[in-house]
Specification:
Layout (H helix, E strand, L loop, with lengths): L4 H25 L4 H22 L6 H26 L7 H15 L1 H6 L4 H23 L4 H15 L7 H39 L4 E6 L4 E4 L1 H6 L13 H4 L5 H4 L1 H6 L8 E8 L5 E13 L2 E10 L1 H15 L9 H14 L4 E9 L3 H7 L1 H18 L5 E6 L2 E9 L4 H15 L3 E2 L5 E2 L3 E8 L6 H18 L4 E3 L2 H17 L8 E10 L5 E12 L3 E3 L1 H11 L2 H21 L6 E5 L2 H5 L3 H12 L6 E5 L1 H6 L1 H14 L2 E7 L7 H5 L4 E4 L1 H4 L6 H17 L2 E4 L5 H10 L3 E2 L13 H8 L11
Parallel strand pairs: 11-12, 14-16, 16-17, 17-18, 18-19, 19-20, 20-21
Antiparallel strand pairs: 1-2, 1-5, 3-4, 4-5, 6-8, 6-11, 7-8, 9-10, 13-14, 13-21, 14-15
């Protein structure tokens, strides 16, 4: 066998060309693999140096040839160093250029030595290259454990390269060349493997770094690829445990036909990817895992695969449940809110045809005072106590919801007959239970009362919205009747509610459109018939509704709160009119004005009274404010404080309609009133009913004993006027004296009736 070195060198050049081409091809395909570029260029440099030495002796001068060969092999050293450093992650930006420059400078520095001994150029450079390969092998073996074999191969290759400095016999040279080529090929193949392995590792790490599970399965359902997240989701230790397994084996309860449904969906016409589906996986450990699966088709070598992302939606389901609860459960009481109530009531009606149910609309009376006096935290605590007490009264199938504010709704399903009897019984229980004291963190009890409206299905409506609205209407009727009452809905209430809604809408523009005006009813001295007072009475002529009676629009104004604005207008207008009369012939008369509870609790009411008197030049005793017993009952403590301020100013306080309602004598001492107005219901029978006569006589006697002025309302005959005057009543008011009249007619009225004017004569 020939041992011509040129033949061996040619074989080496061919091998270098093939191996370097593979490395450079890998770099072209994956530009991030710069170590493939450096190693490939290093091998190209080795190939170039060997080729120059082999074929350049007849073409290039010996000195230049030595220099070129040395430079090529020095470049190989620089590129191998850079490739190894980059592979290990230790090559800094631009550092490879300095390494290459250093290798070239080293080659140039050795040029003077090679001029005298040209035959040492290749052996010495090859020996230095061998040292570089040994260094690369040591670094690869120590830096990455899975490349230890590659590192050893590189070291052996470097050692064999280093023996090029020795003079070998032909037989030994053949053996040396054989092993040298073997380790060169093994090391280069190892480098190619390392590059491919790094590419695979990068994709593997990319898949494993996904926050979602990922797997690839074939048409039959067998898993080909899986990431770590997928293995953990399905309860396995590593992705290797999933490979080759059928998805039905990984997920108990999933059948093989079910596993093939994805591919049927992929092949359907007009399919849009990814396909999304939510499912609950039953894992091997017995737990359940809610998953969203996003599937897309993937074709490899003509075979259809399925790429599946597995998203753990446990947290999403948990948040959805929390949102669902927030949307349906009242956060304060823990019972249904109004939205959930509507759904449950509709379900109750639909699921029990032929049966009746009842809706109870519950409103806590004067709950606002608790919030205003003790704060919303105490108010919320009270709502929780109320809800708990209500729930304790109900059966298991009954429904309780907080409708809003201080309003609750109870639904009684599955009732016999029309359901009214059961509804009334439950309403009575609720009213009694609310009347008991509630022990709060204030260390003392708070008393409440409740107004309850009742509506029954199907008697009062076949839809849930209608039933709730009718129960609400009935509740307002219960409120008007007093605290701690219940009312059953009827159509009259519905018409009244619609009428109130129309009135409320028209009222909101009445002041701005100047639709209100005042009339005045004289109040005369029972003994002298002198005109002492007039009562201001509000009238409303609406362009939409015509003339609206006060008993129709005043309750609506009180319910909506418009009574404060209307009452302010009445007070200012009445005081302005008294000032005009004062400039005329009537002198100083007292104006009596009705005041609602809303006005008295308004923080600016006392200041309003002061301003109305001051701006019109009136004395405080010229103003008398009329209150009903309901005003005193509703908010006793606050009303007492306001009345004390008004009395301190000199304003008179009158109790209207005395003898009706509660007529508690305690009010006469608690509130330091000035005047009692005897209700017309007693006055009208005073001539013919001994009972009424005695009662009026007793009221007058009591008023005298308390130092109160007494006004009899509804005086319509001369006989009534005479009896009242004989009993000692101070003032008379009624149609016998005069009907309510316009302010401009007051002087004419006084002249026609011949009533002496106080402090002035009648001027024609």
């Amino acid at each position: 066998m020939s041992t011509d070195p040129s033949q061996f060198a040619l074989t080496s050049v061919v091998a270098d060309a093939i191996l370097s081409a593979i490395l450079l091809f890998l770099w072209v395909m994956q530009r991030k693999e710069r170590h493939a570029l450096f190693w490939g260029l290093g091998q190209v440099c080795i190939m170039s140096g060997t080729g120059l030495w082999l074929f350049g002796q007849q073409l290039v001068a010996p000195g230049l040839l030595n220099a070129l060969c040395a430079l090529a092999l020095a470049g190989a050293m620089g590129f191998y160093w850079a490739g190894t450093q980059f592979f290990l992650g230790r090559l800094r930006r631009g550092q490879w250029r300095w390494a290459l420059l250093g290798s070239l400078l080293m080659a140039l520095a050795l040029q003077p030595l090679w001029r005298g001994a040209a035959h040492w150029v290749i052996p010495s450079v090859t020996g230095l290259m061998g040292c570089m390969l040994v260094w690369c092998g040591v670094k690869l073996a120590g830096g990455r454990h899975r490349y230890r074999l590659l590192g050893i191969t590189m070291v052996l290759r470097g050692v064999l390269n280093g023996t090029a400095l020795l003079t070998l016999l032909p037989e030994v040279y053949l053996l040396w060349f054989t092993f040298s080529m073997l380790f060169k090929c093994l090391s280069m193949l190892g480098l190619i493997y390392a590059v491919q392995e790094e590419i695979q590792q990068r994709y593997g790490h990319t898949i494993d770094s996904l926050s979602n599970g990922f797997l690839i399965r074939d048409r039959r359902g067998y898993v080909h690829v899986a990431n770590e997240r997928c293995a953990r989701l399905l309860g396995f230790d590593s992705p290797a445990d999933l490979l080759g397994q059928h998805v039905s084996d990984l997920l108990p309860g999933l059948t093989r036909p079910m596993a093939e449904q994805y591919f049927a969906a992929f092949e359907a016409e007009g399919a849009v990817y990814p396909l999304s589906q939510e499912a609950v996986f039953h894992l091997h450990d017995g737990s359940e895992l809610p998953i969203e699966m996003l599937a897309s088709p993937y074709v490899e070598r003509g075979q259809l695969f399925c790429l599946v992302q597995l998203l753990d939606i446990s947290e999403r389901r948990k948040k959805d449940a929390e949102l669902y609860k927030a949307a349906r459960i009242d956060p304060i009481t823990g019972f249904y809110n109004r939205h959930a109530l509507a759904a449950r009531l509709a379900q109750t009606i639909a699921s029990a045809p032929g049966q009746s149910c009842a809706v109870l609309f519950i409103d806590l009376d004067k709950f606002k005072r608790v919030n205003d006096s003790f704060g919303h935290a105490v108010g919320d605590e009270l709502l929780r106590k109320v809800a708990k007490r209500l729930h304790g009264l109900l059966a298991a199938d009954d429904i309780l919801a907080r409708f809003g504010g201080d309003e609750f709704i109870v639904v009684l399903p599955g009732l016999e007959g029309d359901g009214m009897e059961a509804a009334i019984a439950c309403a009575s229980q609720i009213i009694a239970a609310m009347g008991l004291s509630f022990n709060l963190s204030l260390h003392h009890g708070i008393g409440l009362s409740a107004s309850v409206g009742l509506a029954c299905y199907p008697l009062h409506g076949a839809e849930c919205d209608i039933l709730i609205r009718h129960a609400d209407i009935a509740m307002y009727e219960a409120k008007k009747a007093g605290r701690g009452e219940w009312r059953l809905f009827n159509e009259t209430m519905n018409q009244a509610a619609k009428d109130a809604l129309v009135i409320d809408g028209a009222l909101r523009q009445a002041i701005a459109n100047e639709e209100f005006h005042l009339v005045y009813q004289p109040i005369t001295d029972a003994h002298t018939q002198q005109l002492k007072k007039v009562e201001a009475l509000l009238r409303w002529d609406s362009p939409l509704l015509g003339t609206v009676a006060p008993d129709r629009f005043i309750p609506v104004a009180e319910d909506s709160g418009l009574i404060v604005e209307i009452g302010t207008w009445v007070l200012r207008q009445a005081c302005r009119q008294v000032a005009l009369w004062k400039q005329g012939s009537l002198g100083e008369i007292t104006i009596s004005i009705n005041v609602s509870a809303w006005q008295l609790v308004d923080p600016g009411f006392v200041a309003l009274v002061q301003d109305a008197l001051r701006s019109n030049g009136l004395a405080a005793h010229q103003l008398e404010l009329e209150l009903t017993e309901r005003v005193l009952i509703d908010d006793g403590a606050n009303v007492r404080a306001v009345l004390e301020q008004l009395r301190a100013m000199g304003v008179s306080i009158s109790l209207d309609d005395f003898g009706t309602g509660y007529s508690s004598l305690s009010y006469l001492t608690q509130f330091h009133l000035n005047t009692l107005k005897i209700d017309r219901a007693f006055v009208m029978d005073i001539e013919h009913s001994e009972r009424s006569n005695n009662l009026v006589h007793a009221i007058i006697a009591m008023g005298h004993s308390l130092g109160l002025q007494l006004v009899a309302e509804g005086v319509e005959t001369a006989g009534q006027a005479h009896i009242l005057e004989q009993m000692g009543c101070h003032y008379l008011q009624g149609f016998h004296i005069a009907k309510p009249i316009l302010p401009d007619d007051m002087l004419l009225f006084a002249e026609q009736r011949g009533i002496p004017l106080l402090g002035a004569s009648v001027v024609a």
